[in-house]
Amino acid sequence: MNLQLLLDNRITLILLIIFSSSLFIQLIYYWFIFGRLAFYKKKKLNNNYEPVSVVICAKNEYTNLKNNLPMILEQDYPNFEVLVVNDASDDETYYLLKIMSDTYKHLKIVNIKEDVNFFKGKKFPLTIGIKSAKHDIILLTDADCRPSSMLWITKMVEQFHAGTEIVLGYGKYKTEKGLLNKLIRFDTLFIALQYLSYSLSKMTYMGVGRNLAYRKSLFFAKNGFISHYKIKSGDDDLFINQAANKKNTKISIDIDCHTVSQPKKSFGQWITQKRRHLTTGSYYKFSSKLILGIYSLSLIIFFTTFVSLLIYDPNNIFLFLALFSIRLISQLIIHKRVMNKLNESKFLLLTPLFEIFFMFLNPLVVLLNIYSKPDKWK
User: Fold this and answer.
1) Fewer CB within 10 Å: C terminus or N terminus of the chain?
2) CATH code for the structural domain at 52-191+203-264
């Protein structure tokens, strides 16, 4: 009996050490990395109003362009052009653009008549669009995205000062009713929490093509997408992963410079979208995979050892719950501040449950991608 008690105590001690270590790692991430975004204060900057080329790739996007393009074309900015790359659409996209170009003289149509894109994806038409742009600052968004205000270009471009070659923005999804919408917006928020926080920590590893700007000169200096051209996805995150350094990247999170997209309406459509997004992580730099992997691994260990401790030593449940609460409170504080900054709401208290859900979902999606390829871009 004494031997069994000793063994049980030893197991409890080992689990407690592992649990406490994972808690410590998680707290470092929350307060020293994610906290940079949560407590971020924007510096006052003078906008030089450099000329801008907004580049949008469109394949069968008639409805989205009709709804969203006017707000982009009517931005309150002194000198910009909008290039829409019509990627061999077989709907009325081209004719819509021709009609709009009669009204908006700064709308430039880059028309790809035939499907000559041997490596299916967005990279070929996007490269054509960037090459066709007149100006050095390239501001990217998608046809299904709508700027949150008429100051979108202004707020993104004001971050381009001496040495800045990349500006990361936030592309959110429209708030709607239902659990799926909350899951999509939480997922988007947490991805932004990571890439924006890491960028503030001088560890930029990705951006999102829904709201992203960089210099055309940087694009060509890094040979564009050549190093990962055969990969369907990654026109945003893989390029930023290879092009960003400690000094050349800024973030812009002002509410006026968000873009807003329509979220998927079904779980299946959303999973298909996630599958495309999760195909690129294995191609990141080792340093990026390491910093992301440590967080994910410590999170899994944290929850696994917490449950194990409750099973092995229920007599000390209040101690374990107290330690668990330290992370929970930290999580809610950081998420609340970030949600305020990024104008998100209505799922804060669901954050711990959503986190557990994605802790299981994301690895399953990655495994699914290993055994079957996700759909192409369009």
Assistant:
1) N
2) 3.90.550.10
